[in-house]
Design goal:
The complex is a heterotetramer of chains A (749), B (288), C (81) and D (162).
Chain A lengths: L21 H6 L14 E7 L5 E7 L1 H5 L3 E6 L9 H10 L4 E2 L5 E7 L2 H10 L1 E6 L6 H5 L23 E9 L2 H7 L2 E9 L11 E6 L5 E5 L4 H12 L6 E5 L15 H10 L5 E4 L2 H7 L5 E10 L5 E11 L9 H8 L8 E8 L14 H19 L3 H8 L18 H10 L11 E10 L4 E9 L5 E5 L7 H13 L6 E5 L16 H28 L6 E4 L2 E4 L10 E2 H7 L8 E8 L5 E11 L6 E11 L6 H20 L30 E6 L21 H13 L10 H12 L1
Chain B lengths: L1 E3 L4 H10 L4 E4 L5 H6 L7 E4 L9 E3 L5 E3 L5 H5 L2 H6 L1 H8 L4 H4 L4 H6 L7 H8 L2 E6 L2 E6 L4 E3 L2 E2 L6 E7 L6 E8 L10 E10 L2 E10 L6 E2 L1 H7 L6 H14 L10 H24 L4
Parallel strand pairs in B: 1-3, 2-3
Antiparallel strand pairs in B: 4-5, 5-10, 6-7, 6-10, 8-9, 11-12, 12-13, 13-14
Helix pairs in contact in B: 5-8, 9-10, 10-11
Chain D lengths: L3 E7 L2 E7 L5 H8 L18 E4 L2 E4 L12 E3 L11 H8 L9 H14 L5 H7 L11 H21 L1
Parallel strand pairs in D: 1-5
Antiparallel strand pairs in D: 1-2, 3-4, 3-5
Helix pairs in contact in D: 2-5
The chains are: A alpha+beta (749), B alpha+beta (288), C alpha+beta (81), D alpha+beta (162).
Chain lengths: 749, 288, 81, 162
């Protein structure tokens, strides 16, 4: 299933060349967010609320401003009023208004001539708070008597009578679930919980912003989407987006967490107040954990009915999710359709509510909502399989979605590869390895929609026969290489002759961020179209030179060839020859393509994990791990594997140790990597991968997008493996040693 | 902040005695710099001890023990074959502190003075019977390591006093020590529970034992009851069970973000058992 | 006429109907027609919707074509990580 | 606040700068010497992105004051490639052992320090040595493979040279 086994006839697609930015990244030359500096630059620091919920009575910055070298302080009073909807939410999160809504909420910012001075000045800004009652847990936020954090937060969807912290409600389904449960031999019903986790990118947010009196400005920033940064920053500050030019730096990881703004507009606001001097702001790790966008925490009721032969007759879920103190941030709209997306079940009912709580404004995190939903549903499917003595892969093959299945969320699947991933997992040697004492095996499947979105790409043919491609989707994990490969394939020129650049907002039309697994899919698709456009023009130039019809010229192997009746009449004209003469043959040759890309194909994966649990301490060791996922087509298989492995590692962290821990005072207790425990090198085994390729008919090279699905199956797969090893089922993540040990002891009575 | 680089402990003590604001000593800096970065501590005076001659040395004492300078980092301890042969438990405790990078800087004295009940190097030192040499404005005194920490983040050192060396006693014959800790990951975490066992055998029988428990009380505990449970035994299953029970009984932990009270009590017993076995095997010479 | 499937909790804004038939050649026309027929759906449409037309999910493209025989499902606006 | 005059050697070059006594070596490298290849991921010694060697010992430059570097020999990622790339650098590119690349300088510096001490480590030894270097993108798999492949090549070269 790896590329080697599939004959595609591609010359470049499917190969593993060095990435174009590799050299810069191994030598320390690549410039990330905090690596930019400008002449006359100031440094900024942010004052943050130490309270989970408090009225801001007074902000006194006089002592800070009295320090020599302190140039500007901004508070909410410096920002425009009258914003509505999500723009207001963004502004409220950039700087607190009347109330601080979570521990770490920004209250003021200061710019000074050095970083230490800015930090000293921030400590001198005195904020008077009136502390208010708070709530941080998703279930507690809906309990009677829980403080209503923001009255009137409910949108149109919330039925009368729900708690004041409920912001959204959703329900859908099909079939008769009660009849389905009645037809089952075994019906089980449980509640599953997941804690909030953070994307944990190693690069903290950083930006350098400059804004002059004329309202024109620039920003250099690490982001997944600089057009989003531009639009959001402009909205928050009440300036014209067109007057802001945003250049993305190299990005040190994002995973969805860098698709929105947090402190970026503050650099501009401070710059303007400081007479237009550029201002640099770099978050500390604790600021990142306290005050950027972790994912939601969830509490999920699941009920599934199964027959003795493994047929699933009905499923029902009720999800409660909190995405912080702002409405619209929890991924209920994604979690619900993902819940049963891997299955073809005759009767399903999905319900969810979004609740707000005194926590930071959640952001997207790799397949937002899908990992939680998978934890609940796939854990329950595993519980039923174990109780009925059924093989978990066979049950998934039996009930799994296929081409033409009606999806759990309504539409019919076109061409999908879930069954292929299940067959490959079943056939993999890992699935046959005998388990020892205290060892267990877990299986789970996962799903992500993938995404297309607004995309603009341009391509210029060089005088030397090379091609330069300008894309607007920041490269997080090797997309420049994969887009370069597709362009090389299309133009028929060596990969080394294609240069792919991520360009700033002034150089292209609008692009959505690198999110939803869309960069290689959508920018790649647009780049191929742009290349085709350039090819058309090059054929025209050749035709003019040969004095034949442009339609009688075909492009192959990097050259125009006379075709049809003219075949063989002229020697092929290479891209280099055409490029070298283009000034005299009509002018520079380029191609461009702008589209809201459609045609994306859903992505499915199946994971198999073996663990060993220390029965005396409850500590789980991952022994081996297998990721099988449908890539559509793997353009650069090494980076496809990298996405699979990285997604699995994040999922393993979520399953075992990562969690936001809030104290009774509503403050985050673990805002450092010491206690926010992401997997370290010695925690993990090698992560085996199988790339299944069921090409997506909606893409010229069959790409589906590979980034997101991989984080989804590990949560239930690990919990199920622990259940296999110990007999104890953990229904509340993380499966931390104290929890696992307590469950083992409870079993023993 | 004033940064001082005295060249003798007497000078260091004099500078320390003369300060009026927040004072910190700097050896490896792996705790102090973290606290400064987090804004928990803003020292007015920082006294760097690394310019004092001898602080980077490991030396045999006249009695056959080891005198370890306050700036000797973990990686140097771990690379000292003779010291490792004598006190593998002490060294393995120190080598569990932080990453390889932290090992390049972190010291026994710093780990001790940070005052954390979860400090990985402290149970091993306590079990070994290590002694801290303390220099103050009125000269030097020797204090058993277990008497240095006063509670989380606090020490029993008086104003102007600074640890000038750590001394491990002579290993002697038929002895072995070991340290184990429990963490949720494999590396990089603070101990949820730690336990060090140091014992001496006569034949198969344990004749001396010191057992120290970490992260189950405000300071590292030196447990009589645990020692009693194994002295006079051959560390058979009954003795190990008694040791586990004693450790569970001694543990008076709290529940926090790193673990629950119940979990810490259970695991204290488990680690005591496991560490005792390793120490026993080392004393027998059947393992390293 | 394209058949537009409403998720269950939207049906109360459309007289309890599960499927609403509308005349539309594009996603944008379809959404406009829906809102004209059932003004109660306005806030949901304004909040942002994704749609699936004949199996293909369309996040936010009002220009995407809808055929007379198309089967359309409304979804909440999808985000990605 | 009076500043401290620091004289040190970075990647073989003599350098001097004035440091606030509270400034870390990491701050000095990045802000005074424009050596931004060394990264800050946490500032508390938990992520290893700021790894450098000081007098040959691997340390976190965020856990060391700039003033402490006086008279020392500091090596950073910028000094790793001589006339050509270090085998580790080359193997990291070839094995796709980096995705976002932010942790890469620290991991390369740490891995180089490992191979200088232990030219033939086991996978487990590599994993524990690098446990203080967090990577969130790769799951470490390709990093371990790249380090081992570089180690094998370096052993081969060493044998060839001997």
């Amino acid at each position: 299933m790896a590329r080697d086994d599939v004959k595609t006839g591609y010359k470049y697609v499917g190969t593993r060349p060095n990435r174009p930015d590799g050299l810069d990244k191994v030598t320390g030359r690549a410039r990330y967010g905090a690596d930019f500096s400008l002449p006359g630059m100031l440094w900024a620091a942010v004052v943050r609320s130490p309270h989970a919920h408090a009225r801001i009575v007074k902000i006194d910055a006089s002592k800070a401003l009295a320090l020599e070298g302190v140039k500007a302080v901004v508070t909410r009073a410096d920002l425009p009023t009258g914003l509505t909807g999500e723009d207001l939410n963004l502004q409220d999160n950039t700087l607190a208004g009347e109330k601080a809504l979570y521990d770490g909420h920004a209250v003021a910012a200061v710019a000074a001539t050095s970083q230490l001075l800015a930090q000293d000045a921030a400590r001198l800004i005195e904020v008077t708070y009136e502390v208010l009652p708070h709530v941080t847990d998703v279930d507690a936020a809906m309990a009677p008597g829980a403080p209503v954090i923001r009255p009137g937060v409910a949108d149109y969807s919330v039925p009368e009578g729900m708690h004041g912290n409920v912001a959204r409600y959703m329900e859908f389904g099909h079939g008769d679930v009660e009849a389905g449960f009645a037809a089952a031999d075994l019906v089980r019903e449980h509640t599953y919980k997941t804690e909030a986790t953070h994307q944990g990118y190693i690069e903290p947010h950083a930006a350098v912003g400059q804004l002059g009196e004329d309202g024109r400005g620039e920003m250099w920033v690490c982001t997944q989407g600089h057009w989003y940064i531009r639009r959001m920053s402009a909205a928050v500050l009440g300036i014209e987006a067109a007057n802001l030019r945003v250049t993305p730096s190299e990005i040190g990881g994002g995973f969805g967490g860098k698709t929105t703004i947090f402190m970026e507009p503050l650099t501009l606001a401070l710059s303007k107040k400081a007479g237009g001097r550029p201002v640099k702001l770099v978050m500390s790790r604790s600021e990142v954990l306290r005050a950027t966008g972790p994912t939601a925490s969830a509490s999920m009721d699941v009920k599934i009915g199964m027959k003795k032969d493994g047929t699933i007759t009905a499923g029902q879920v009720f999800f409660r999710m909190q995405g912080g103190a702002f409405p619209g941030m929890s991924p209920i709209g994604e979690a619900l359709p993902c819940a049963f997306a891997c299955y073809d079940i005759p009767a399903l009912k999905h319900e969810a509510v979004e609740v707000i709580a005194n926590r930071p404004k959640a952001a997207a995190y790799r397949a937002p909502g899908s990992p939680m939903a998978a934890f609940a549903v796939e854990s329950m499917v595993d519980e039923l399989c174990r109780e009925l003595g059924l093989d978990p892969i066979e049950v998934r093959l039996k009930n799994g979605a296929k081409n033409g299945s009606k999806s759990s969320y309504g539409p019919v699947y076109n061409v999908i590869g879930l069954q292929e991933t299940l067959e490959a997992a079943k056939a993999h040697p890992n699935y046959a390895i005998p388990l020892g004492p205290n060892q267990g095996r877990g299986v789970a499947s996962g799903f992500w929609f993938n995404h297309g979105g607004e995309t603009s790409v341009s391509l210029a043919v060089g005088e030397d026969g090379t091609a330069t491609v300008m894309i607007g989707t920041p490269d997080i994990g090797g997309s420049r290489a994969s887009i370069g490969l597709m362009v090389a394939e299309t133009l028929g020129i060596p990969y080394e002759d294609v240069r792919v650049n991520v360009v700033e907002t002034g150089a292209l039309g609008v692009n959505e961020p690198t999110h939803g697994s869309r960069a290689t899919f959508a920018s790649g698709k647009a780049a191929v179209e742009a290349a085709n456009q350039a090819i058309k023009e090059m054929c025209k130039r050749a035709a003019a030179e040969w004095e034949i019809d442009a339609e009688a010229v075909e492009w192959k192997d990097g050259a125009a060839h006379p075709a049809g009746p003219n075949a063989g009449k002229f020697p092929p004209m290479t891209i280099g020859e055409i490029g070298s003469k283009m000034g005299g043959s009509g002018g520079p040759i380029s191609g461009h393509h702008e589209v809201t890309a459609g045609g994306y194909g859903a992505s499915f994966g199946t994971h198999v994990v073996d663990v060993e649990v220390d029965p005396e301490t409850g500590r789980t060791t991952v022994l081996r791990y297998l990721v099988v996922q449908d890539a559509g087509t793997a353009i650069h298989p090494a980076y496809v594997e990298g996405q699979y492995q990285g997604g699995a590692a994040q999922g393993i962290g979520w399953a075992l140790n990562e969690e936001y821990v809030y104290g009774p005072d509503g403050r985050l207790q673990n805002p450092v990597f010491l206690d926010y425990r992401i997997p370290v090198a010695s925690d993990l085994p090698m992560i085996d991968t199988v790339i299944v390729e069921v090409p997506n008919p909606g893409h010229p090279y069959g790409v589906r997008g590979v980034g997101e699905t991989g984080i989804t199956p590990p949560l239930p797969a690990i919990a199920s493996a622990i259940a296999g090893a110990t007999g104890a089922r953990i229904r509340s993540l993380p499966c931390s040693p104290p929890k696992v040990l307590a469950a083992i002891k409870a079993l023993k009575g | 902040m004033r940064y001082h680089t005295p060249t003798s402990f007497a000078d260091a003590a004099a500078i320390a005695a003369g300060t009026t604001g927040t004072l910190r000593f700097l050896a490896g800096g792996t705790d102090v710099l973290v606290q400064m970065r987090a804004g928990m501590v803003q020292p007015d005076d920082l006294i760097d001890l690394k310019h004092i001659p001898g602080v980077d040395k490991i030396e045999r004492t006249a009695e056959g023990g080891w005198r370890i300078g306050v700036a000797v980092p973990g990686i140097v301890l771990g690379g000292h074959a003779e010291l490792v042969r004598d006190w593998p438990g002490v060294v393995e405790g120190m080598n569990l502190v932080g990453s390889t990078q932290v090992q390049g800087r972190a010291t026994l004295a710093g780990n001790l003075c940070n005052g954390s009940p979860a400090a990985d190097s402290v149970p091993g030192m306590v079990a070994a019977g290590a002694v801290a040499t303390v220099t103050g404005p009125n000269g030097t005194r020797e204090i058993p390591v277990e008497n240095i920490p006063a509670g989380p983040g606090k020490t029993n050192l008086a104003k102007g006093e600074v640890i000038s060396a750590i001394t491990l006693p002579p290993r002697g014959k038929n002895g072995g020590d070991a340290y184990l800790r429990f963490i949720p990951r494999t590396e990089m975490d603070i101990a949820v529970v730690g336990c060090a066992v140091n014992l001496r055998l006569d034949g198969d029988k344990v004749v001396e034992a010191r057992v120290a428990l970490g992260a189950v009380a405000p300071t590292v505990l030196l447990s009589e009851a645990c020692a009693k449970a194994i002295i006079g035994t051959t560390l058979d299953d009954a003795a190990l069970a008694a040791l586990a029970k004693a450790a569970e009984g001694e543990a008076k932990p709290i529940s926090d973000k790193r673990g629950t009270k119940e979990f810490r009590i259970d695991v204290a017993g488990v680690l005591a058992r496991r560490a005792a076995k390793i120490a026993y095997d080392r004393a027998k010479g059947t393992s390293k | 006429m394209a058949k537009v499937h409403l998720w269950a909790s939207l049906r109360r804004f459309a007289d309890g109907q599960e499927v609403v038939e509308v005349e539309a050649a594009t996603v944008g026309q379809m959404l406009d027609a829906l809102e004209r027929a059932h003004p109660g759906l306005g806030p949901a449409i304004k909040a942002g919707l994704s749609v699936a037309v004949d199996g293909e999910v369309i996040a936010n493209n009002r220009a995407a074509p809808v055929k007379p025989e198309s089967e359309v499902f409304l979804l909440q606006r999808l985000k990605g990580g | 606040m009076s500043k401290i005059h620091v004289t040190t050697t970075v990647n073989g070059d003599p350098v001097e700068f004035l440091a606030d006594p509270r400034e870390t070596l990491l701050d000095a490298l990045r802000n005074h010497l424009d050596l931004t290849g060394t990264k800050e991921g946490c500032g508390t010694g938990d992520c290893g992105a700021c790894s450098v060697t000081v007098d040959g010992t691997l340390v976190c430059s965020c856990l060391m004051l700039a003033a402490e570097a006086n008279g020392k020999r500091v090596e950073t990622i910028e000094g790793m490639a001589k006339e050509e790339l270090h085998p580790l650098q080359r193997k990291f590119i070839e094995h796709a052992a980096l995705q976002c690349g932010f942790c890469t300088p620290g991991i390369l510096v740490a891995a180089k320090a490992l191979l200088e001490r232990n030219p033939d480590p086991t996978d487990t030894e590599v994993r524990y040595w690098l446990a203080g270097n967090l990577c969130r993108c790769t799951g470490y798999d390709k990093i371990i493979r790249a380090v081992q492949d570089a180690a094998a090549e370096m052993r081969q070269e060493h044998r060839g040279a001997a």
